[in-house]
Amino acid sequence: MSGNGNRPLVPFNIRDLSPYVAGKTIAEVEKEYQPPEVSKLASNENRLGCSPDVEKEVIKAMQEIQDYPDPASRQLRDVLADLNNVDRENILVAAGSESVISILCRTFFLNHEEAITADATFVGFFVQVNIRGISINKIPVTNDYRYDLEAMADAISERTKMIYIANPNNPTGTYVNASEFERFMRRVPDDVLVVMDEAYYEYARDVADYPHSLDYDYDNVITLRTFSKAYGLAGFRIGYAIAPERIVSEMMKTKLTFEPTTPAQAAALAALGDQKFLKKSKDRVEEGKKRLYEFFEKHNVSYVPSISNSVMMVLPDEQQAVDFTQAMLEQGVILRRINAFGLPNCVRITIGRKKEMAHFERSFEKVLETQEF
Ligand SMILES: Cc1ncc(COP(=O)(O)O)c(C=O)c1O
Q: Most Cβ neighbours (<10 Å): which of 119, 300, 318, 360?
């Protein structure tokens, strides 16, 4: 059989992607550095865990584990519809908001079209757009690490199909406020989709000028939410989109038929029923952020105030960020460098339990003995 020797194995857009580099696990850090304790403050997870109601419902769901899940997630979509004052047809549930982003990329882009977002935002969006072979126009964030919506609106062209805004943003924790969002939307043509990724919505929703994207009546806005953050279900992989029916019905065609799994749907339903746990999680993050800001101010460390569950430290350069993260790791504190998100000199700290944050502070003070910034 003769083949075409010049034919590449994979398309260039896949070849040029870097595989996801996961942070170290607690077990790996224990084994490698043997610190007296390990605090994982790297992935914006809920360090309080999840609602105790989840386990019971997941065990119940195991009775159906031999059957395929409901491909339309009807029960969960009905509850979400009620909670958000929309119809079931406005909701799509998938294996995490990363999967929803992948569905959006599969469903809506034509080959010559492009996406617009910030240069420092959720890396998962960059990856899914690249997999689809679509170009991204990344608009630099402002000096205070916020989306530059005016510049993003200026960048809209005939090729623009989708604009992605994480609100609040990851990794910066900053947000687009209501008047900025409204001004921006006045400049976006109706045939451009605006994705408002509200992964951290539960932490942000009480901020006075935070724009709740669902309170507006735009025909081209898609709201993303997830159970991975405040609800503490990251391991289940479940998130959702809320959008006009004409958008959701197209997305339903490209969603993997049986995502998310039956236990994940049961877990999400249980989590939605426990608002007490949600409040406790939110209160912990508020208290933890306040204390962390005071700590940073005491040590003259530059940081960016956040309305999500993480805070970004700004170091003078990339090498210092590398050295600092490594030194903290050796103390058992796992943090996230955010070079892949476009900010090589910054480090992101997830707000953890009190005990973990105290470990962070102690370790930080130890590291300061040998590293200055
Ligand atoms: C802004 C943003 N969107 C989406 C995700 C992915 O969430 P999920 O676990 O639902 O895929 C994250 C996770 O870090 C995120 O920060």
A: 360
Residues ≥6 apart with Cβ < 8 Å to 28: none
Distance 266 CA to ligand 1 centre (A): 20
What's CA 369's distance to the chain center, in Å? 34
* Euclidean distance between CA atoms 264 and 57, whole angstroms: 10
Strand partners, 118: 139
Residue 8, preceding peptide bond in cis (omega within 30° of 0) = no
- pTM (2 decimals)? 0.96
- Does the beta carbon of 197 sit less than 6 angstroms from any atom of ligand 1? yes
Sign of torsion over alpha carbons 210, 225, 197, 124: positive
Cβ of 122 closer than 6 Å to ligand 1, yes or no, is: yes
Ligand 1, atom nearest to 226 Cα: 10
pLDDT tens digits for range 221-279: 999 999 999 999 999 999 999 999 999 999 999 999 999 999 999 999 999 999 999 99
Q: How many CA atoms lie within 13 A of 97 on its CB side?
A: 25
User: Cα(73)–Cα(88) distance, rounded to whole angstroms?
Assistant: 10
**Radius of gyration for the chain, computed over Cα atoms and rounded to the nearest angstrom:** 21
